[in-house]
């Protein structure tokens, strides 16, 4: 049996200018743009609590960059599976691209058992709302339920926390 050797060819090359999807000369390309030119979409991120859980918390710089030009003065935290309650938390920007959860974070952290070694997962829902899941030091998720007597007209100074099931 006779063997024939073939020289590998690439599609789109040597077929003339502007012809086919990979043709040269027309400036078009079938390849996606490089990652640096794609718009950055940050929907989920986490922080690990290594220092005092009750002081302001830095959020990832990429998330702050994502909000560039739309920096909110406040965000609203919603504990996953803890009812519709939104916790108002003031946001600080340091002028160097860092974003921090500030006033209001302490109340949220106490009510949801955020402590040293916790892993706190955030999901950006839009409209300055972040849904939060808290995992303890064993990497197991903490679950909560809300008190049925909780009312919407309650002030942030009179915090009624979610209660951990027994």
From TrEMBL:
Q: Which residues form the TF-B3 domain?
A: 42-138
Under the heading CDD domains, the entry gives: B3_DNA
Question: Which SMART domains does the record match to this protein?
Answer: B3
Top-level taxonomic group: Eukaryota
Q: Where is the composition biased (Basic residues)?
A: 8-22
InterPro entries named among the record's database cross-references: B3_DNA-bd (IPR003340), DNA-bd_pseudobarrel_sf (IPR015300), Plant_B3_domain (IPR050655)
UniProt keyword list: DNA-binding, Nucleus, Transcription, Transcription regulation
One term under GO cellular component: nucleus
Alphabetically, the GO molecular function entries are:
DNA binding
User: Coiled-coil intervals in this record?
Assistant: none
Q: Name one Pfam family in it.
A: B3
Compartments (UniProt record): Nucleus
Return the annotated region ranges for Disordered.
1-35
Q: Which PANTHER family match?
A: B3 DOMAIN-CONTAINING, B3 DOMAIN-CONTAINING PROTEIN OS03G0621600-RELATED
Please give the name of this protein.
Answer: TF-B3 domain-containing protein
